[in-house]
Amino acid sequence: MPPMSTPKHFLQFKDLTREEFDHVFTRTRIIKDRYQRYERYWPLTDRTLVMIFEKASTRTRLSFEAGMQQLGGSAIYLNTRDTQLGRGEPVEDAAQVMSRMCDAVMIRTFEQEIIERFARHSRVPVINGLTNEYHPCQIMADIYTFIEHRGDIRGKTVAWIGDSNNVCNTWLQAAELLDFNVHVSTPPGYEVEPERAGLYGTDHYEHFGDPMDAARNADLVTTDVWTSMGFEAENEERCRDFHDWQVDADMMRVAKPGALFMHCLPAHRGEEVTAEVIDGPHSVVWDEAGNRMHTQKALLEYLLLGRIDS
Ligand code: CP
Ligand code: NVA
What we know:
This protein is α/β, with parallel strands linked by helices.
């Protein structure tokens, strides 16, 4: 039976504390090792995750679905088109119903407000699988990937080049919580909105007009598409505005020697990043994508079962 007490949700990055992330990352290492050894680990036997997608996905769907199966549970895919959500059933009613039939819900939707309304009426944990404002599961995987390759991220510098979108906002929240710095460079008119990013202060990020200045001496350079899902009508204008915000080999050269390159994917080679960089020696994008599954398995274990140390 799903728990009756107030569930713990992961709606934005700062919903977990630094200690909780330390725990999730420790568990990720253990769970990933087991997976790589083909060792069965089924703590979520008979548990069900419902996944609601209002936008397209490859990685998020696959990583949650495969992850639940590998933990002994199952995942059910729903989308707006085929459910009553697409015909105007209130989110609050859907939350009441769905959370009586499953143990956790993952939602990919438009405004953050939708997922927050759902969570307020859910009896089980709700996980943000991307909203217009945030993508916390992505940054959890990115930070784990950084730790795998370079160790602790505390005190390090991340350069964000491009749109101040959901992924950028989440990097900024993570920087405040985990104590690292983000150098952001966006074209004029696309700057970070601190309130929308859910920031308490501005100590952990700095804006640079020139993307080369943002990348200088960075430990990690990262970017994302110029046009996010839901903003397709602005695509032509954005392609013009973002033209000079491309991560290329010159930009990687001004970063620290050995700097990493990350991209949440899907990527557009020749737009926000050159093929030379994303397919080059700095890039860890495939590890980053794979770690979506491993970190989310640890997150599911934590949200559903609490701290496990075995
Ligand atoms: N990075 C990411 O969330 O990918 P998908 O859109 O394929 O899920
Ligand atoms: N910023 C992108 C991320 C896709 C994973 C989008 O929202 O479309």
